[in-house]
Design goal:
Helix 1 crosses helix 2. The longest helix has 34 residues, at 45-78. The chain is 65% helix and 0% strand. The protein is elongated and about 70 Å long. It folds into two domains: 1-39, no CATH class; 41-83. With 83 residues, it is mostly helical. The protein is built from three helices and no strands.
């Protein structure tokens, strides 16, 4: 499917770095895209679970920090004479 997107536009839609997609496009034009990743061994189930856990932890920390800031903001707003 070709929607006529530029590499930066497509990278943004796919949530990929522009450089990564640009490299893939270049490799495809050279006929070498099928070789990408063949030098790496597949991840084990444990490695995949660790990556998922790390991602979830980062998201939870970000949510916690946002909630802390919101709680501090609303606590400040509810004090008498702070408006």
């Amino acid at each position: 499917m070709n929607e006529g997107l530029s590499v930066p536009q497509a990278a943004k839609r796919l949530s990929l770095p522009k450089s990564t997609l640009g490299n893939w496009v270049g490799l495809q034009k050279q006929g070498k895209l099928g070789n990408v990743g063949k030098a790496y061994r597949p991840l084990t189930d444990l490695e995949m679970e660790l990556a998922r856990t790390k991602k979830e932890l980062a998201e939870v920390k970000m949510e916690r920090d946002i909630l802390k800031k919101a709680a501090a903001y609303f606590a400040k707003e509810s004090l008498p004479g702070t408006r």
